[in-house]
C-alpha cells in the first residue's frame, strides 16, 4: 500500500467511527478488494482495525488509534508529508532524501497477490519541458523563517515596475508547474508571489497574522483557480485543423473550442486578462484568424507590423 492511500484510509476510519468497505473504496478511489487487502495490512502493522462481515458488519477503528510514526525518523516523516513533490523539489526545499528502508517501513512488503508495488512503477518529475534551473530565492533558504511563523518583508519585482518592499503574512510555499510560490496575505488579501521575483527578504519580529480558520491548501487553491479562470476579455478566433492540438497544448484551459467547421477550421474563444495577451496568437501565424473583438484584431495587426518593421 502506498503512503498516500495509507493516510487516506486512516483519515476515513478516524473521521467515521463505523463505516463500510464500499464507503472506504469510494473515499480512496480503489476497489473493495483492494480496501480489504489494505485493512489486513493495517492489522498486520498493529493498527486496531476491526472488520466485521455479515448483515450487521462494517469497519471501525478502536478509539484512541492514530497513525504511529514512531518507526520513522524526522526526515522520513517530513518526506511523507510532502506528497506530490518530486525528488528535485524535495532537495531544493532542503528535505533529506528518503531511504529505501524508510519506504519499506510505510509501504510494506510486496503484496500477497504477487503484484508489484505502485510506488516502484511510477516516478514523478514536475519540471517543465526545457525548463531552466530555477533562480530567485531558494525554497530551502526561505523555509526556516516560514517555520518560525513570523511576518516577512520581501523585496519583490513585478513586470514593468521597479522592485518594492512588501510586508506579508506567509501561509507557506506552493510548488506548481515547475515553479515555487510564496502564498501569503498582504493587508488581509491573499497573494501568490513567485520566488523568481524575490531577490531578498527580511524576517520580522512579529508573529504572522493569518485569517482565522484558513489553511495553506485553501488559500493556494483559491489563488490558482482564480488565476486560471480570470480574464474578462474574450477573443474569438478560428484555427486551422492541423494546429488545433498545438493550440490546446500551448493555450491550455484559456482556450475553449467549438465544433469543427466544413471549411477545415475550428472556432474558439481565448480568455485573456489584458489586451496584450493576444500576442500569444502570433505563434500560429496565418493558421489562426482573430474574428473579434475589433480592438483585439487591431492590436494583433500592430504587433505583426512591428515584427515586419523590425526585420525590414
UniProtKB/TrEMBL annotation:
It comes from the Bacteria. Residues 8-57 form the Helix-turn-helix type domain. Residues 233-307 form the WCX domain. Residues 146-202 form the WYL domain. This is WYL domain-containing protein. InterPro entries: CBASS_pafABC_assoc_protein, HTH_11, WCX_dom, WH-like_DNA-bd_sf, WH_DNA-bd_sf, WYL_dom.
Amino acid at each position: 500500500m502506498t503512503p498516500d492511500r495509507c493516510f487516506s484510509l486512516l483519515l476515513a476510519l478516524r473521521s467515521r467511527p463505523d463505516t463500510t468497505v464500499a464507503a472506504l473504496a469510494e473515499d480512496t478511489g480503489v476497489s473493495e478488494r483492494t480496501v480489504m487487502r489494505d485493512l489486513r495490512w493495517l492489522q498486520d502493522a498493529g493498527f486496531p482495525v476491526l472488520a466485521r462481515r455479515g448483515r450487521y458488519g462494517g469497519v471501525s477503528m478502536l478509539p484512541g488509534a492514530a497513525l504511529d510514526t514512531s518507526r520513522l525518523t524526522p526526515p522520513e516523516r517530513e518526506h511523507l508529508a510532502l506528497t506530490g513533490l518530486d525528488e528535485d523539489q524535495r532537495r531544493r526545499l532542503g528535505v533529506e532524501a528518503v531511504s529505501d528502508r524508510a519506504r519499506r517501513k510505510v509501504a510494506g512488503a510486496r503484496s500477497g497477490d504477487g503484484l508489484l508495488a505502485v510506488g516502484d512503477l511510477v516516478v514523478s518529475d514536475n519540471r517543465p519541458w526545457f525548463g531552466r534551473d530555477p533562480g530567485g530565492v531558494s525554497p530551502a533558504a526561505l523555509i526556516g523563517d516560514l517555520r518560525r511563523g513570523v511576518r516577512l518583508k520581501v523585496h519583490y519585482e513585478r513586470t514593468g515596475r521597479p522592485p518594492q518592499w512588501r510586508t506579508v503574512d506567509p501561509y507557506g510555499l506552493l510548488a506548481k508547474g515547475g515553479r515555487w510560490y510564496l502564498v501569503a496575505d498582504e493587508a488581509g488579501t491573499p497573494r501568490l508571489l513567485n520566488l523568481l521575483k524575490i531577490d531578498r527578504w527580511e524576517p520580522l519580529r512579529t508573529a504572522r497574522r493569518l485569517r482565522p480558520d484558513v489553511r495553506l491548501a485553501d488559500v493556494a487553491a483559491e489563488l490558482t483557480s482564480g488565476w486560471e479562470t480570470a480574464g474578462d476579455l474574450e477573443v474569438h478566433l478560428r484555427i486551422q485543423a492541423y494546429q488545433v492540438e498545438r493550440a490546446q497544448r500551448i493555450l491550455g484551459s484559456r482556450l475553449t473550442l467549438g465544433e469543427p467547421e466544413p471549411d477545415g477550421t475550428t472556432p474558439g474563444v481565448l480568455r485573456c486578462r489584458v489586451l496584450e495577451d493576444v500576442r500569444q496568437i502570433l505563434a500560429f501565424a496565418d493558421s489562426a484568424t482573430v474574428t473579434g473583438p475589433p480592438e483585439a484584431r487591431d492590436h494583433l495587426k500592430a504587433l505583426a507590423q512591428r515584427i515586419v518593421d523590425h526585420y525590414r
